[in-house]
Structure formats: C-alpha cells, structure tokens
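Exercise: predict the structure of this protein bound to zinc ion.
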Amino acid sequence: MKHLTFEEMTDFVSLRSLDRSSVELIQRVNGHVCRCSECRKKLRAMQTVAEGFASVAASFEKNGKSDCNNVTKNKIENENLTQTRKYRKEF
Ligand SMILES: [Zn+2]
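Solution:
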C-alpha cells in the first residue's frame, strides 16, 4: 500500500475550492485514510493546525466581507462526509 505523501496531505487540508484535481485528491485521501490509521493520525494533526489558521483568517473577514470561502469550505466538508460514509458502507 502506498502511503499518502506530505504534499497530498497539505494540499488536502488547504483545499479552498473544488475542481477536477481537488476532487480526485479528496477521493484518494479519503479512500486511503479509511484503511490506514497511520496516515489518518497525521492528517488529523494537520487538519487541526489548518483549522486553527482558518479560524484566525475568519476573524479577519468578519467585517462585512463575502463569505464565499466558507461556502466552498462547507461544500468540501460535505463532500468529505459523503465519501467517508460511502467507504464505511464498503466495510
Ligand atoms: Zn497510509
């Protein structure tokens, strides 16, 4: 089994938009971490850090700015959830 690379994980946690290549990345990362606890731990640690940055960024954007970034982020999170559910069913 080929583990996720550092670049794949950092790309995954810093995704801010959905396009063809990001969807492929999401599928690969989700598919792998469902089977590999080692990469799951690393990814979770990275996500914690990324979420910390995201909430700092969000606090700067409070003053009436468009929240389209949040919408995109939610979309990605929903996408992840769907993928995770799909993989869980396969077990
Ligand atoms: Zn792995």
